[in-house]
Amino acid sequence: MTKAGPTPYPIRCFRCLRLLLHLVWIGIGTFIFYPLIGEKRRAFLKQRWSHQILKILSVHLETLPTDAPHGSLIVANHISWLDIFAVYALRPVAFISKAEIRQWPFFGWLAKQNDTVFLRRGSRGHARIVNAEIDALLNTGMDVAIFPEGTTTDGTHMLGFHAALLQPAIETGRPVLPLAISYHDADGRVSLAPSFAGDTTLAQCFSAILAKRSLTVLLIPAPVIDSTKLHRRELAKVAHTAIAIKLGFLSSNNPPEKLPGPQSG
């Protein structure tokens, strides 16, 4: 049996048109409905809209159940901008994002309306303010998601975690949910198409995703971690190891003595 080739260009164009119309609808819905409805309804819309984005791009979401309670700090590896919609589709969360995104046309406004907390990198004073915002969200029972690698990879390895980003879980005593993210082709092999790492531009990444007839994103939760008994460096190490094991980068019988940096703080 011959392998299916790339997506025909008419289908790619159709996907682009559908995605554009869907984003317009999300913008209208956010502007009109968000001020009129409660948090639960907004969470429902956020989850539904994200499922639709994945469907339009022929990205199938597969996951496993988790007993993590609401108000958990979700810690995940980072591969692509698609990660955001995959996690939204799993659980409506508030994301921690770099401050530059807030200045992006449309998407910066949309992120702000969906509870995104913007972090100005390199500023310890601002980090304390952001941690206070995360504390408040966790204490209201909202899940907060972070990518503690601080950047993306191509999915074939992991970078070290910035331990300081896990401090709010310790301060609030909220549990930490490690979440492993990976992308796969139709034959089950790891796909590099969604990778938004290195010198890859957003246009190149988007084009590579469109070229795939279908993709599967796996969201595999690890056991919840009790944050009250660990220093943030220890918490970063435990979370990193849990995700690396789920991704098959480490054996559960032989975790590393030391994980790659950064873990400062």
What would you say about this model in short?
The protein has 265 residues and is an alpha/beta fold.
Description:
The protein is of the alpha/beta class and 265 residues long. The protein is 40% helix and 14% strand. The protein contains 8 helices and 7 strands. It has a 7-stranded mixed sheet with strand order 1-7-6-2-5-3-4, with helices on both faces. β3, α4 and β4 form a beta-alpha-beta unit. α1 packs antiparallel against α2. The termini are far apart. The relative contact order is 0.16. The model has no long low-confidence stretch (mean pLDDT 90).
Q: What's the CATH architecture? A: 3-Layer(aba) Sandwich
Instruction: Indicate the percent of residues in helices.
Output: 40-55%
For the sheet with most strands, the description reads: 7 strands, mixed
CATH class: Alpha Beta
Shape: globular
Secondary-structure element series: HHEEHEHEHEHEHEH
CATH topology: Glycerol-3-phosphate (1)-acyltransferase
Question: What is the count of structural domains?
Answer: 1
Q: What's the average pLDDT?
A: 90
Treating each run of at least 4 consecutive H or I residues as one helix, how many helices? Answer: 8
Radius of gyration: 18 Å
**Quaternary assembly:** single chain
Arrangement of strands in the largest sheet: 1-7-6-2-5-3-4
Q: What class, by secondary structure content?
A: alpha/beta
Pfam families: Acyltransferase (PF01553)
Protein name: 1-acyl-sn-glycerol-3-phosphate acyltransferase
GO molecular function: 1-acylglycerol-3-phosphate O-acyltransferase activity
Pathway: Lipid metabolism
